Amino acid sequence: MTNNLHPLGQSILDRAEALARFSDMEGGLTCAFLTPAHRSAQALLAQWMEAAGMQVRTDAIGNVIGRYAADAAAGGDARVLMTGSHFDTVRNGGRYDGRLGILLPIAVVGALHAAGIRLPYHLDVVGFAEEEGLRFKTSFLASSVLAGRFDPALLARTDADGVTMREALAASGLPGNGELAALQAAAVDPAALLGFVEVHIEQGPVLLDKGLALGVVTQIAGSSRFQVRVEGQASHAGTTPMGMRRDAAAGAAEMILLVEARCSAAPTLVGTVGQLQIPDGSSNVIPAACTFSMDIRAGEDGIREAAIADIVAGIQQIAARRGLSAHVDRVRPVQNAPCARWLMDQFGAVLRKRGLPAFELPSGAGHDAMMMQRITDVAMLFVRCGNGGISHNPLETITAEDAQLAAEVFVDFLRHFQPQG
Ligand code: HGY
Ligand code: MN
Ligand code: MN
User: Fold this and answer.
1) Which protein residue has the closest C-alpha to ligand 1 atom 4?
2) Which residue's CA is minimally distant from atom 1 of ligand 1?
3) Is the C-beta atom of 348 inside 6 A of ligand 1?
4) For the chain, is the Cβ count within 10 Å smaller at the N or the C terminus?
């Protein structure tokens, strides 16, 4: 289905569609870490990278990394500009979240290669194997390996079927068989990096509302995730008077409303309970336990931390008043990640040269760039999200025209890129 007006953009959309055929579910796109669909997506990305003129390798966590080698004139000690994003998805997700940031650079490298153009630095395109945390409730798993920040405790973490991450890696045939030493050795040398840039669908309505195809990200909001377990007492649904109940689910409901109310109290602050369970619940038994997830984010770490302190204290107060107990486990938080002004300005200059505004906006969603920001300067280019800006949803969409423009801007960025002086 070639769109002659926007051939590069259309080819990116076509590839996103082809990649989305590998799914863990029927009738939608779910691509969780190391499932057969995930391995197939990884193999296809590697194939496309090779066809575009890159040397490809797969690392110990399953990242697929294509290198478009520097111009011979750059010499043997050329440094690396890295770009990329993730190819795993949320459950029943969209086909561009993450994948656009791999497919677009592959298309751009393919065009440079076909035109015989080399860059004065190595360009590494990374398909990060895992960012969403669907299978092992992790955050930024694959980029944490590349950034040398892998948490060894994760190897013992189990998925919903009781398979540990170590077992899943060992069974995968990936280099290193899930050995910690191999995961640690997969870290990149920060001294070799010139920076990390990520192209990503905006996943919100800002660019759409402004009538703009592209935006430059200023910072990526920090986030904290929690697992909460509320415990009460099981008893008979028909005979226990309302005033005598210790209902874990009713307590959890009040706690969820507290998250909603407290996170409505500051502009960039957001709070979400996306998972809620009554383990072994029965329709005629008062819930003895209820578990839920909490995801809290804000544009400033202090605002997020203040909200968390209030919410955790509030959860304990609700539990005490209702005769319940509550255990709040905090998953490792991710701090707010500012983008580097010198890289943002280079995207801005390219946009302005094309007569486009260098519009800047913060990211409320998390990205691989957050983890890479621990070891190198980062920047992000956002591409307009259609359908009201909806994402983490199959309705997520972009146009071939916007993808084309983003690819052209990315080419200009790469060709004019100046390392920090
Ligand atoms: O949750 C996030 O912000 C990201 O999409 N994983
Ligand atoms: Mn996502
Ligand atoms: Mn993403």
Assistant:
1) 366
2) 366
3) no
4) C
